[in-house]
């Protein structure tokens, strides 16, 4: 499919302008635009500009609140609870990670739960903010039904990403940001929009048969990583980000593309803590840990043993110096949303 090249600063201005047109403040539009641009630059296209129309549609249908009254409840010096008032997820997550960082800097550990939020893009984007402040972080969020619990015929858990980040003693952070499904749902949506096939072994159709048809996969069930273990991890995330926070859980999170019957009420949990809580030489120790693993004998065809986050960092550095390539479909979305 033909791609169109656009300058990063130009497309960022366009996104901000579109979000402001749909009622977001300048600050909230900037936060949202930065998150979408970041997804494009790290190569996570399923969480980038392909979702812009969805956010705008939900604002238009009044299931995302463009002018939220976000409330932060102080539980303790370390713990905060945020009611996002159905805001766009980027804004809720931005406030939450900054609060978690602030709490950790004060007391050594910060825990922030969020309810009444929406889809916030990439967990790793927020993890990087904490790691840059020399903090370790764990982030959880639930999502609309896509994965069937082990032994069940019906999808209920989301692709429920698990995210962990730590400083490494070098400029490249360790960021593990992975959904519990074989591939994330955003990739399947992009494939469906572009009439592309998905890999074998990642989804079943609504009749429980394996499929490489993206549209049939969206109607059916995504497969978890590692069988029942992946299903268990999805359940864990549903508890931590849904049950614990006051957010929706057990399959009640609404699909952002197809269900406009009400807000999603997604829950998020952000945990941050200082690296020197137990040892004073953490950076040296983590650096030694990584070097030890990188020195291991490599299998044929592998030039370097990479840690999570390395490839994404390299993609970001390379893509930041180039124009963003967008599909004709996204170009059309941008044009229609500006009208």
Average residue pLDDT: 95
Helix content: 25-40%
Supply Rg.
20 Å
How would you name the CATH homologous superfamily? Malate/L-lactate/L-sulpholactate dehydrogenase, NADPH binding domain
Major β-sheet annotation:
7 strands, mixed
Derived structural class: alpha+beta
What strand order characterises the main sheet?
2-3-4-10-5-6-7
Which key terms come to mind for this protein?
alpha+beta, Ribosomal Protein S8, Chain: A, domain 1, single chain, seven-stranded mixed sheet, 339 residues, globular, 11 helices
Describe the structure.
This protein has 339 residues and is an alpha+beta fold. It has a single domain, classed as Ribosomal Protein S8, Chain: A, domain 1 (2-Layer Sandwich). 39% of the residues lie in helices and 17% in strands. It contains eleven helices and eleven strands. It has helices spanning 8-21, 26-41, 52-60, 89-107, 123-131, 185-193, 214-219, 228-243, 282-294, 310-319, 328-338; strands spanning 3-6, 71-74, 79-83, 109-117, 135-141, 162-166, 174-178, 203-204, 221-222, 266-274, 324-327. The strands form three sheets. A seven-stranded mixed beta sheet has the order 2-3-4-10-5-6-7, sandwiched between helices. It has a two-stranded antiparallel sheet with strand order 1-11. The longest helix is centred in the N-terminal third of the chain and has 19 residues, at 89-107. The mean pLDDT is 95.
């Amino acid at each position: 499919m033909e791609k169109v090249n656009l300058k990063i600063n130009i497309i960022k201005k366009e996104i901000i302008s579109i979000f402001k047109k749909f009622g977001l403040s300048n600050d909230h539009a900037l936060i949202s635009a930065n998150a979408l641009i970041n997804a494009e630059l790290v190569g996570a296209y399923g969480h980038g500009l392909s979702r812009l129309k969805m956010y705008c549609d939900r604002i238009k249908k009044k299931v995302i609140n463009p002018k939220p009254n976000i409330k932060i409840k102080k539980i303790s010096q370390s713990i905060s609870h945020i009611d996002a008032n159905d805001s766009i997820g980027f804004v809720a997550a931005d406030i939450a990670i900054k609060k978690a960082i602030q709490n950790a800097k004060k007391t050594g550990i910060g825990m922030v739960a969020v309810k009444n939020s929406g889809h916030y893009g990439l967990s790793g984007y927020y993890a990087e903010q904490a790691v840059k402040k020399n903090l370790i972080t764990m982030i959880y969020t639930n999502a609309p039904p896509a994965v069937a619990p082990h032994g069940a015929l019906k999808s209920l858990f989301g692709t429920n990403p698990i995210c962990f980040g730590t400083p490494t003693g070098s400029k490249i952070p360790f960021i593990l940001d992975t959904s519990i499904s074989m591939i994330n749902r955003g990739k399947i949506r992009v494939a469906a929009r572009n009439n592309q096939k998905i890999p074998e072994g990642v989804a079943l159709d609504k009749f429980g048969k394996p499929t490489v048809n993206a549209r049939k996969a969206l109607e059916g069930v995504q497969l978890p990583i590692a069988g029942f273990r992946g299903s268990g991890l999805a359940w864990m995330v549903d508890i931590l980000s849904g049950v614990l926070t006051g957010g929706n859980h057990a399959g009640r999170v609404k699909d952002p593309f197809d269900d406009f019957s009400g807000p999603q009420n997604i829950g998020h949990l952000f945990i941050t803590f200082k690296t020197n809580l137990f040892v004073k030489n953490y950076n040296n120790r983590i650096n030694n840990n990584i070097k030890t693993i990188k020195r291991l004998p490599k299998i044929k065809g592998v030039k370097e043993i990479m840690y999570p986050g390395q490839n994404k960092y390299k993609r970001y550095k390379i893509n930041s110096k180039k124009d963003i390539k967008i599909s004709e479909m996204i170009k059309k979305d941008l044009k229609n949303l500006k009208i």
